[in-house]
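Hey, can you fold this?
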Amino acid sequence: MSDFSLGDMVQIPYKSGIYIGEIIEDRNEKFLVKTLAVVKHPMQGDLHHPKQVENVLFHERKALSQFEKVNVLKDVVTRYAGPDLDYGESLKNAVEQYSDKLKRKDTAYNQEALRALASVEKSYYHGKYYENGTHHNK
Protein backbone atom coordinates (compact mmCIF):
# COMPACT_ATOMS: atom_id res chain seq x y z
CA MET A 1 0.00 0.00 0.00
CA SER A 2 1.44 3.37 -1.02
CA ASP A 3 1.52 6.35 1.30
CA PHE A 4 1.39 8.76 -1.65
CA SER A 5 -1.66 10.60 -2.96
CA LEU A 6 -2.53 12.32 -6.22
CA GLY A 7 -0.98 15.78 -6.26
CA ASP A 8 1.98 14.84 -4.02
CA MET A 9 5.36 16.27 -4.97
CA VAL A 10 7.93 13.52 -5.48
CA GLN A 11 11.49 12.90 -6.60
CA ILE A 12 11.95 10.22 -9.24
CA PRO A 13 14.84 8.60 -11.04
CA TYR A 14 14.23 8.11 -14.77
CA LYS A 15 16.74 6.79 -17.32
CA SER A 16 19.80 8.02 -15.36
CA GLY A 17 18.28 11.43 -14.61
CA ILE A 18 16.55 12.58 -11.43
CA TYR A 19 13.47 14.78 -11.48
CA ILE A 20 10.91 16.51 -9.27
CA GLY A 21 7.34 15.95 -10.29
CA GLU A 22 3.71 15.68 -9.27
CA ILE A 23 1.79 12.41 -9.04
CA ILE A 24 -1.17 12.72 -11.38
CA GLU A 25 -2.39 9.12 -11.63
CA ASP A 26 -2.08 5.83 -9.73
CA ARG A 27 -1.51 2.97 -12.18
CA ASN A 28 -1.26 -0.08 -9.88
CA GLU A 29 2.52 -0.76 -9.60
CA LYS A 30 3.38 2.63 -11.10
CA PHE A 31 2.58 6.30 -10.76
CA LEU A 32 2.11 8.65 -13.68
CA VAL A 33 4.26 11.66 -12.76
CA LYS A 34 4.26 15.10 -14.38
CA THR A 35 7.81 16.51 -14.60
CA LEU A 36 8.30 19.90 -12.93
CA ALA A 37 12.08 20.22 -12.43
CA VAL A 38 15.42 18.55 -13.16
CA VAL A 39 17.69 17.55 -10.26
CA LYS A 40 20.30 15.52 -12.17
CA HIS A 41 20.79 15.55 -15.94
CA PRO A 42 20.76 12.13 -17.66
CA MET A 43 24.12 10.58 -18.50
CA GLN A 44 25.30 10.78 -22.07
CA GLY A 45 26.40 7.68 -23.94
CA ASP A 46 25.32 4.06 -23.94
CA LEU A 47 23.62 3.22 -20.64
CA HIS A 48 24.33 -0.50 -21.19
CA HIS A 49 28.07 0.23 -21.50
CA PRO A 50 28.58 3.22 -19.20
CA LYS A 51 31.63 5.42 -19.68
CA GLN A 52 32.67 3.58 -22.83
CA VAL A 53 33.14 5.20 -26.23
CA GLU A 54 34.53 2.42 -28.43
CA ASN A 55 32.23 -0.06 -30.18
CA VAL A 56 29.10 1.47 -28.63
CA LEU A 57 26.35 3.72 -29.91
CA PHE A 58 26.94 6.97 -28.02
CA HIS A 59 23.52 8.48 -27.33
CA GLU A 60 22.72 12.11 -26.74
CA ARG A 61 20.19 12.11 -23.89
CA LYS A 62 17.94 15.07 -23.19
CA ALA A 63 16.31 15.68 -19.85
CA LEU A 64 12.58 15.14 -19.59
CA SER A 65 10.65 18.20 -20.77
CA GLN A 66 8.65 20.43 -18.47
CA PHE A 67 5.25 18.79 -17.80
CA GLU A 68 6.30 15.60 -19.62
CA LYS A 69 4.50 12.64 -18.09
CA VAL A 70 6.29 9.39 -17.25
CA ASN A 71 5.34 6.10 -15.65
CA VAL A 72 7.55 5.31 -12.67
CA LEU A 73 7.61 2.24 -10.45
CA LYS A 74 6.18 3.11 -7.04
CA ASP A 75 9.13 1.62 -5.15
CA VAL A 76 11.59 4.21 -6.59
CA VAL A 77 9.43 7.25 -5.80
CA THR A 78 10.42 9.38 -2.80
CA ARG A 79 8.62 12.33 -1.27
CA TYR A 80 9.90 15.80 -2.18
CA ALA A 81 9.45 18.48 0.45
CA GLY A 82 11.92 21.06 -0.83
CA PRO A 83 11.24 24.44 -2.36
CA ASP A 84 9.35 24.89 -5.62
CA LEU A 85 11.86 24.83 -8.46
CA ASP A 86 11.64 26.65 -11.77
CA TYR A 87 12.02 24.11 -14.57
CA GLY A 88 14.29 26.29 -16.74
CA GLU A 89 16.61 27.20 -13.87
CA SER A 90 16.72 23.60 -12.62
CA LEU A 91 17.60 22.38 -16.12
CA LYS A 92 20.36 24.95 -16.46
CA ASN A 93 21.78 24.01 -13.04
CA ALA A 94 21.65 20.28 -13.83
CA VAL A 95 23.50 20.81 -17.13
CA GLU A 96 26.16 22.95 -15.40
CA GLN A 97 26.67 20.40 -12.60
CA TYR A 98 27.03 17.52 -15.06
CA SER A 99 29.38 19.53 -17.28
CA ASP A 100 31.54 20.52 -14.30
CA LYS A 101 31.75 16.87 -13.22
CA LEU A 102 32.82 15.78 -16.72
CA LYS A 103 35.47 18.51 -16.93
CA ARG A 104 37.22 17.32 -13.75
CA LYS A 105 38.84 14.36 -15.50
CA ASP A 106 40.14 14.27 -19.08
CA THR A 107 39.03 10.91 -20.46
CA ALA A 108 37.73 9.82 -23.85
CA TYR A 109 34.29 9.23 -22.33
CA ASN A 110 34.18 12.63 -20.63
CA GLN A 111 35.21 14.39 -23.85
CA GLU A 112 32.51 12.59 -25.85
CA ALA A 113 29.92 13.17 -23.11
CA LEU A 114 30.76 16.90 -23.03
CA ARG A 115 30.31 17.06 -26.81
CA ALA A 116 26.94 15.29 -26.55
CA LEU A 117 25.87 17.47 -23.62
CA ALA A 118 26.76 20.63 -25.56
CA SER A 119 24.62 19.40 -28.43
CA VAL A 120 21.55 18.76 -26.27
CA GLU A 121 22.14 22.02 -24.39
CA LYS A 122 21.87 23.93 -27.68
CA SER A 123 18.39 22.51 -28.15
CA TYR A 124 17.47 23.71 -24.65
CA TYR A 125 18.78 27.22 -25.28
CA HIS A 126 17.05 27.42 -28.65
CA GLY A 127 13.88 25.89 -27.26
CA LYS A 128 11.24 27.34 -25.02
CA TYR A 129 13.30 27.58 -21.82
CA TYR A 130 16.16 29.82 -22.82
CA GLU A 131 16.69 32.37 -25.53
CA ASN A 132 20.09 34.00 -26.08
CA GLY A 133 21.15 32.74 -22.64
CA THR A 134 18.30 34.55 -20.91
CA HIS A 135 15.75 32.46 -19.08
CA HIS A 136 12.04 32.77 -19.74
CA ASN A 137 9.02 30.53 -19.20
CA LYS A 138 6.20 30.04 -21.63
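Oh, and this one too while you're at it.
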Amino acid sequence: MKKPVILLALTASLLGALAGPALAAPRLGAQSIIVNPVPTTLQARVWVDRDPSGNGTPTYRVGEAITLYTSVNEDAYVYLFNVNPDGSTDQILPNRISGSNRVRAGQIRAFPAPSDRFTFDVAGPQGLNRVLVVASRRPLNLNELSTYSQGESFATVKPTTTPGFAQALSIVVNPVTQPVPQQDWTSDTASYTVRS
Protein backbone atom coordinates (compact mmCIF):
# COMPACT_ATOMS: atom_id res chain seq x y z
CA MET A 1 0.00 0.00 0.00
CA LYS A 2 1.26 3.44 -0.83
CA LYS A 3 2.30 5.36 2.25
CA PRO A 4 0.67 8.79 2.56
CA VAL A 5 3.16 11.60 2.87
CA ILE A 6 2.73 14.25 5.51
CA LEU A 7 3.94 17.71 4.75
CA LEU A 8 2.88 20.42 7.11
CA ALA A 9 3.88 24.03 7.11
CA LEU A 10 2.63 27.52 7.35
CA THR A 11 4.04 30.48 5.54
CA ALA A 12 5.84 33.08 7.65
CA SER A 13 2.71 34.94 8.69
CA LEU A 14 -1.00 34.59 8.32
CA LEU A 15 -3.09 37.38 6.96
CA GLY A 16 -5.72 39.22 9.07
CA ALA A 17 -9.36 38.37 9.53
CA LEU A 18 -11.41 36.53 6.94
CA ALA A 19 -14.11 38.54 5.27
CA GLY A 20 -17.55 37.40 6.34
CA PRO A 21 -20.83 38.44 7.86
CA ALA A 22 -21.01 39.67 11.44
CA LEU A 23 -18.27 39.91 14.02
CA ALA A 24 -18.53 36.19 14.80
CA ALA A 25 -17.08 35.10 11.46
CA PRO A 26 -14.17 32.65 11.71
CA ARG A 27 -10.84 34.45 11.49
CA LEU A 28 -7.18 33.72 10.97
CA GLY A 29 -4.88 33.84 13.94
CA ALA A 30 -1.11 33.88 14.33
CA GLN A 31 -1.06 30.54 16.17
CA SER A 32 -3.92 28.88 14.30
CA ILE A 33 -5.12 28.70 10.76
CA ILE A 34 -8.74 29.35 11.64
CA VAL A 35 -10.05 30.56 14.96
CA ASN A 36 -13.60 30.61 16.30
CA PRO A 37 -14.10 34.03 17.91
CA VAL A 38 -17.17 32.86 19.85
CA PRO A 39 -16.61 31.23 23.27
CA THR A 40 -17.48 27.54 23.30
CA THR A 41 -17.28 24.75 25.86
CA LEU A 42 -16.09 22.34 23.16
CA GLN A 43 -12.33 21.87 23.36
CA ALA A 44 -9.97 20.01 21.04
CA ARG A 45 -6.27 19.26 21.26
CA VAL A 46 -3.82 18.09 18.64
CA TRP A 47 -0.19 17.04 19.11
CA VAL A 48 2.59 14.98 17.53
CA ASP A 49 4.31 11.96 19.05
CA ARG A 50 7.50 13.90 19.91
CA ASP A 51 5.66 16.65 21.79
CA PRO A 52 2.72 15.48 23.92
CA SER A 53 2.22 19.03 25.20
CA GLY A 54 1.37 20.26 21.69
CA ASN A 55 3.17 23.51 22.52
CA GLY A 56 6.68 22.76 21.21
CA THR A 57 8.09 22.40 17.75
CA PRO A 58 9.93 19.07 17.57
CA THR A 59 12.14 18.21 14.62
CA TYR A 60 11.62 15.28 12.24
CA ARG A 61 13.94 14.19 9.47
CA VAL A 62 12.67 13.38 5.99
CA GLY A 63 11.61 9.72 5.92
CA GLU A 64 10.84 9.41 9.64
CA ALA A 65 7.42 8.18 10.70
CA ILE A 66 5.16 10.58 12.61
CA THR A 67 2.00 9.94 14.60
CA LEU A 68 -0.62 12.62 15.19
CA TYR A 69 -2.90 12.59 18.22
CA THR A 70 -6.14 14.37 19.01
CA SER A 71 -8.65 14.46 21.82
CA VAL A 72 -11.87 16.33 22.60
CA ASN A 73 -13.64 17.09 25.87
CA GLU A 74 -17.04 16.02 24.50
CA ASP A 75 -18.19 13.80 21.66
CA ALA A 76 -17.33 15.51 18.37
CA TYR A 77 -16.50 15.02 14.72
CA VAL A 78 -12.79 15.59 14.19
CA TYR A 79 -11.16 16.89 11.00
CA LEU A 80 -7.36 16.81 10.70
CA PHE A 81 -5.31 18.70 8.12
CA ASN A 82 -1.63 19.20 7.30
CA VAL A 83 -0.54 22.62 6.09
CA ASN A 84 2.62 22.26 4.04
CA PRO A 85 5.60 24.65 3.75
CA ASP A 86 4.35 25.82 0.36
CA GLY A 87 0.88 26.62 1.78
CA SER A 88 -0.87 23.61 0.26
CA THR A 89 -2.90 21.39 2.58
CA ASP A 90 -3.37 17.63 3.02
CA GLN A 91 -6.50 16.17 4.59
CA ILE A 92 -5.72 13.42 7.10
CA LEU A 93 -9.16 12.80 8.55
CA PRO A 94 -11.69 11.89 7.44
CA ASN A 95 -10.19 9.32 5.11
CA ARG A 96 -11.30 6.00 3.66
CA ILE A 97 -9.01 3.86 5.84
CA SER A 98 -9.19 5.03 9.47
CA GLY A 99 -12.93 4.59 10.02
CA SER A 100 -15.18 7.18 11.56
CA ASN A 101 -13.98 10.67 12.39
CA ARG A 102 -16.29 10.71 15.43
CA VAL A 103 -14.22 10.93 18.62
CA ARG A 104 -15.68 10.27 22.07
CA ALA A 105 -15.16 12.65 24.97
CA GLY A 106 -11.82 11.97 26.68
CA GLN A 107 -10.70 9.48 24.00
CA ILE A 108 -7.22 9.95 22.54
CA ARG A 109 -7.10 8.99 18.86
CA ALA A 110 -3.83 8.31 17.06
CA PHE A 111 -3.37 8.76 13.31
CA PRO A 112 -2.35 6.41 12.06
CA ALA A 113 -3.75 4.09 14.70
CA PRO A 114 -1.68 1.01 15.58
CA SER A 115 -4.22 -1.11 13.66
CA ASP A 116 -4.02 1.01 10.48
CA ARG A 117 -2.26 -0.54 7.50
CA PHE A 118 -0.16 2.52 6.69
CA THR A 119 2.29 4.96 8.19
CA PHE A 120 2.70 8.70 7.83
CA ASP A 121 6.24 9.40 6.68
CA VAL A 122 7.60 12.92 6.83
CA ALA A 123 8.68 14.31 3.48
CA GLY A 124 10.19 17.56 2.26
CA PRO A 125 10.34 20.36 1.75
CA GLN A 126 12.06 21.44 4.92
CA GLY A 127 10.49 24.00 7.18
CA LEU A 128 7.87 24.72 9.80
CA ASN A 129 4.83 22.47 9.55
CA ARG A 130 1.39 22.73 11.17
CA VAL A 131 -1.28 20.20 12.01
CA LEU A 132 -4.80 21.63 12.33
CA VAL A 133 -7.70 19.94 14.09
CA VAL A 134 -11.24 21.23 13.72
CA ALA A 135 -13.77 19.62 16.07
CA SER A 136 -17.51 20.03 15.56
CA ARG A 137 -20.56 18.81 17.44
CA ARG A 138 -22.20 18.07 14.09
CA PRO A 139 -20.76 16.66 10.85
CA LEU A 140 -19.27 19.22 8.48
CA ASN A 141 -19.79 19.12 4.72
CA LEU A 142 -16.31 19.18 3.16
CA ASN A 143 -17.51 19.02 -0.48
CA GLU A 144 -16.32 22.56 -1.18
CA LEU A 145 -13.00 21.93 0.55
CA SER A 146 -11.82 18.50 -0.60
CA THR A 147 -12.59 15.61 -2.93
CA TYR A 148 -11.61 11.96 -3.29
CA SER A 149 -10.16 10.80 -6.59
CA GLN A 150 -11.34 7.40 -7.76
CA GLY A 151 -9.63 4.68 -5.75
CA GLU A 152 -7.77 7.08 -3.45
CA SER A 153 -7.88 6.64 0.33
CA PHE A 154 -7.15 10.28 1.16
CA ALA A 155 -9.03 13.32 -0.10
CA THR A 156 -7.30 16.11 -1.98
CA VAL A 157 -7.81 19.61 -0.58
CA LYS A 158 -8.88 21.92 -3.41
CA PRO A 159 -7.35 25.26 -2.31
CA THR A 160 -3.60 25.26 -2.92
CA THR A 161 -2.64 28.18 -0.66
CA THR A 162 -2.96 28.75 3.08
CA PRO A 163 -5.27 31.79 2.66
CA GLY A 164 -7.38 29.83 0.15
CA PHE A 165 -7.64 26.88 2.53
CA ALA A 166 -8.56 29.15 5.46
CA GLN A 167 -11.21 30.89 3.36
CA ALA A 168 -12.71 27.59 2.19
CA LEU A 169 -12.67 26.19 5.73
CA SER A 170 -14.39 29.31 7.05
CA ILE A 171 -17.20 28.65 4.57
CA VAL A 172 -17.46 25.03 5.80
CA VAL A 173 -17.90 26.08 9.44
CA ASN A 174 -20.03 29.14 8.60
CA PRO A 175 -22.08 28.11 5.54
CA VAL A 176 -24.93 30.21 4.23
CA THR A 177 -27.29 27.32 3.49
CA GLN A 178 -27.00 25.29 6.71
CA PRO A 179 -25.06 27.28 9.29
CA VAL A 180 -23.09 25.52 11.99
CA PRO A 181 -23.68 27.44 15.23
CA GLN A 182 -20.43 29.14 16.19
CA GLN A 183 -20.45 27.56 19.65
CA ASP A 184 -20.52 24.09 18.00
CA TRP A 185 -16.95 24.04 16.67
CA THR A 186 -13.39 24.80 17.73
CA SER A 187 -9.83 24.36 16.44
CA ASP A 188 -6.28 23.79 17.65
CA THR A 189 -2.85 23.54 16.00
CA ALA A 190 0.46 21.81 16.67
CA SER A 191 3.69 22.36 14.81
CA TYR A 192 6.89 20.55 13.93
CA THR A 193 9.92 21.23 11.80
CA VAL A 194 11.19 19.08 8.92
CA ARG A 195 14.95 18.79 8.31
CA SER A 196 16.79 16.69 5.76
